[in-house]
Write a structure and sequence with these properties.
alpha+beta, 8-stranded mixed sheet, 4-stranded antiparallel sheet, 14 strands, about 35% helix, globular, binds (3R)-3-hydroxy-3-methyl-5-(phosphonooxy)pentanoic acid
C-alpha cells in the first residue's frame, strides 16, 4: 500500500551547480497544499487577491526542495528548475519575490535559484504553491531577514496566490479580505494536522504540463463564464462551512462539501469560452470509484485542482480498501501521504 516516495531529495538531485564559496545561501523544503475549499478567481490580478476565501491541507511529503544563493559575482537572477534552466520570460513570479526581499534587505545582489519538486510539476498538484513559497523562505533566510511566516506568506502570495497557504502546517485558511491593498487577505493555520490526521492519496493520471496555467484559467473563467458569479457567491459560504466541518471533524459533511466545491469550481471553468477543461476520462472514472466506495460506507472523498489528477482524502484505516479500488484503474500512479507540518529550513 505505502507507495510513499522518498521524502527528501539529495542536494545533488536538485542542485545542478555547486554553491559558490562565501555566498549567502539557504536550502529549504516547502510543501504543496491541496485546497478543500478552492481559490478560483482574482479580485486584483497583480496583487493576487482572491474573490473568495479558501482552505487547504499542507502535504507531509510532497513539495519543493529549493536553494537560493546570493553572490556578488552573479550578473543576473537565474532559476534552475528540476535541473533545467528557466527562460527569463518564465521567471516573472520568482523575480517579483526576489525584488521584494532585496528591497527589504537593502541589497541589489543577484540570485541563483535551484529547485526540484518530488512530484509531477505543473500537473495540478499546486507546484507553484510549493515552489514559490520555497523560494520566498529560502531567499529570506539567505539574506538573513528571518521574517515571520505571516510576512513571508504575504510576499509569496504576490507570486502565486495558493503559495500563501504553504507556510503553515495542518489545515490552513486564506481569508479573502476586503481592503484594496490586500493587507487583510492573509493565510493562517486553522488547526494542526494532529487535530484530524486524514490520509491522502494522489492518483496521478498524467504528469504532463496542464493546458491552462491557473491564472489564465481563472481570468478566462471570470471574463467569459456565466457561472463565475454564482461560483463566487457559493464559494465564500462553502469555505466557511468546510472550516466548520473540519473543526467538528464531521466526515460525511466535509466529504459532500469538498466534492461539491470542487465540482462547482470546475463547472464554472468548463463554462468559460473557450472552455477550461482540466479533467481527463480517468478523472471521472476515479470520481465514480470514490463515490461507489463512500456509498459502501468507506470514509473517502475527492478533490481536484487545476489538472487531471485526483486527490482522495480518507479516515485512517480506509487506505487498503481505497488502494484496492483505485488499483483496478489502469495506468494510475498512487502517491500516499498525510497532512504535514509546513516548511522547514534544511541548511543555512
Ligand atoms: O495559486 P495558483 O495560481 O496556482 O492557483 C491555484 C488554483 C487551485 O489549485 C485550482 C485552487 C487552490 O485553491 O489551490
Amino acid at each position: 500500500m505505502t507507495q510513499r516516495r522518498s521524502v527528501g531529495l539529495e542536494p545533488k538531485e536538485w542542485e545542478l551547480e555547486s554553491l559558490k564559496s562565501e555566498s549567502q545561501h539557504a536550502r529549504v523544503f516547502s510543501p504543496s497544499n491541496i485546497a478543500l475549499a478552492k481559490y478560483w478567481g482574482k479580485r486584483h490580478v497583480e496583487l493576487n487577491l482572491p474573490t473568495n476565501s479558501s482552505l487547504s491541507v499542507s502535504l507531509a511529503d510532497f513539495g519543493s526542495f529549493t536553494t537560493v544563493e546570493f553572490h556578488k559575482s552573479f550578473e543576473s537572477d537565474r532559476v534552475i528548475l528540476n535541473r533545467k534552466e528557466e527562460a527569463p520570460t518564465q521567471m516573472v513570479k520568482v523575480r517579483r519575490i526576489l525584488d521584494e526581499l532585496r528591497r527589504v534587505a537593502g541589497t541589489d545582489l543577484r540570485a541563483r535559484v535551484q529547485s526540484a519538486n518530488n512530484f509531477p510539476t505543473a500537473a495540478g498538484l499546486a507546484s507553484s504553491a510549493s515552489g514559490i513559497s520555497a523560494v520566498t523562505l529560502a531567499a529570506s533566510e539567505a539574506l538573513g531577514l528571518g521574517l515571520p511566516a505571516s510576512d513571508l506568506s504575504e510576499i509569496a502570495r504576490k507570486g502565486s496566490g495558493s503559495a500563501c497557504r504553504s507556510f503553515f502546517g495542518g489545515y490552513v485558511e486564506w481569508t479573502r479580505g476586503s481592503r484594496a491593498d490586500g493587507s487583510d487577505s492573509r493565510a493562517a493555520m486553522v488547526v494542526p494536522g494532529t487535530h484530524w490526521p486524514l490520509s491522502i492519496v494522489i492518483a496521478v493520471i498524467s504528469g504532463a504540463k496542464k493546458h491552462h496555467a491557473s491564472t489564465g484559467g481563472m481570468e478566462l473563467t471570470r471574463r467569459t463564464s456565466p457561472y463565475f458569479k454564482p461560483w463566487v457567491e457559493c464559494a465564500e459560504k462553502q469555505a466557511s462551512e468546510i472550516r466548520s466541518a473540519v473543526l467538528e471533524k464531521s466526515f460525511l459533511r466535509l466529504a459532500d462539501l469538498v466534492e461539491s466545491n470542487c465540482i462547482r469550481m470546475h463547472a464554472s471553468a468548463m463554462a468559460a469560452f473557450p472552455p477550461v477543461i482540466y479533467w481527463h476520462g480517468g478523472t471521472i472514472e476515479i470520481m465514480r470509484q470514490i463515490h461507489d466506495l463512500r456509498a459502501r460506507g468507506v470514509p473517502v472523498f475527492f478533490t481536484i485542482d487545476a489538472g487531471p489528477n485526483v486527490v482522495a482524502l480518507m479516515e485512517p484505516g480506509a487506505e487498503k480498501t481505497v488502494e484496492a479500488a483505485l488499483s483496478k484503474i489502469r495506468g494510475l500512479e498512487l502517491l500516499w501521504t498525510g497532512i504535514g507540518n509546513g516548511p522547514r529550513v534544511e541548511q543555512k
